[in-house]
Amino acid sequence: MKTNEFYREEIRKRLTDARYRHSLNVADTAARLAKRYGADAEKAYTAGLAHDILKDTPKPEQRAYVLKYCGDADEILLTQPALWHSVAGAEFLKNELDMDDPEIYLAVRYHTSGRKDMTLLEKVVFIADFISADRAYPGVEEMRRYADASLEQAIEEGLNFTICELCKKHQPIYKDTVDAYNDAVLHRLKESING
Ligand code: DGI
Ligand code: FE
Ligand code: FE
Hints:
By secondary structure, the chain is an all-alpha fold. It has a single domain, classed as Hypothetical protein af1432 (Orthogonal Bundle). It has eleven helices and no strands. It binds 2'-deoxyguanosine-5'-diphosphate (DGI) and fe (iii) ion (2 copies). The site of one fe (iii) ion (FE) has 5 residues, from helix 2. One fe (iii) ion (FE) binds next to helix 6.
């Protein structure tokens, strides 16, 4: 692991000003949610700052990192450029920038798709990306209220929104996104059955 200053500069130099501002906002929101829900606020901040590290890197380079580090990449992953920066970013941080924290790795790796059985830190970063100060889509205020009331509910709403948007555009849904959605819905259904 290198110093915070080292990572901050490595992240900043790879991003446009707007994307770096987004990353600072996600870091702040992730730290706040971490305190609210009992996750490690410092790790949440670092993961939030790092989550989009390769988002502005040329797509062929992102894909090359996916191929290099992710031997089991499936067809959907390999054909959906929007998914590459999270997988490539996590591997890049781990293998090329010596960031050796497994919890931060997972939070970056799954920040776009989610997955079944996300850790608390993964959930915090996933939702921070939806509600950071720079987000202005219709419904963001409602998402912010969900995030303060229940992380689980916010995740279900976020995944519902993402899957609906992808369906409208006739895009494939990555298996981890489907698993994350089913996980969130089943969690709620089981809770209502069990009282
Ligand atoms: O990097 P950000 O813009 O901050 O946000 P993000 O990492 O959540 O990326 C959002 C993009 O990823 C958006 O264009 C939708 C896309 N996406 C998310 N889940 C899936 C997906 N695309 C496909 N094809 N399949 C998914 O499961
Ligand atoms: Fe992202
Ligand atoms: Fe982001």
